[in-house]
Specification:
Elements lengths: L1 H13 L8 H23 L4 H7 L4 H30 L5 H35 L1
């Protein structure tokens, strides 16, 4: 089991300098673009900041998750595909858990961290403009 974890973390660290390292910039940038777009839309229609509302608004959680997936799903799938290609080139094998972790870190985490603050900032900016 210890060997599994050490290989997992070595493989993840190897992605920083291996082939296709451009995706380490491309995927988070795409996720941020989609998060900004969704956050501005949330502010326009009066929705609460996304990540916080996922925990506090149980009644709308499913709809919010569907909306988030609709926005970021392609970037996440693209991340998995890119990691599969990377793994086949470098390892000549496919490790599905690694692909899921890499795609989540590169796509989902930036999206979740950016969408809510954009909504909050846009709402604050629009309120000041009205006053």
């Amino acid at each position: 089991m210890e060997d599994l974890f050490s290989r997992f973390f070595e493989d993840l660290a190897g992605r920083l300098s291996g082939p296709m390292k451009f995706r380490l910039i491309l995927q988070p940038v795409m996720a941020i673009i989609f998060a900004v777009r969704s956050g501005l839309k949330d502010a326009k229609v009066g929705n609460p900041p996304y990540f916080w509302a996922l925990f506090t608004d149980a009644a709308h959680r499913a709809a919010m998750l569907r909306d988030g997936w609709k926005s970021i799903g392609r970037v996440f799938i693209f991340g998995i595909v890119m990691d599969v290609v990377y793994q086949i080139i470098v390892f000549r094998r496919f490790y599905p858990v690694e692909a899921l972790v890499v795609a989540a870190v590169l796509a989902l985490v930036p999206y979740l961290l950016i969408r809510g603050p954009v909504t909050h900032s846009a709402r604050g900016t629009s309120k000041k403009a009205v006053e």
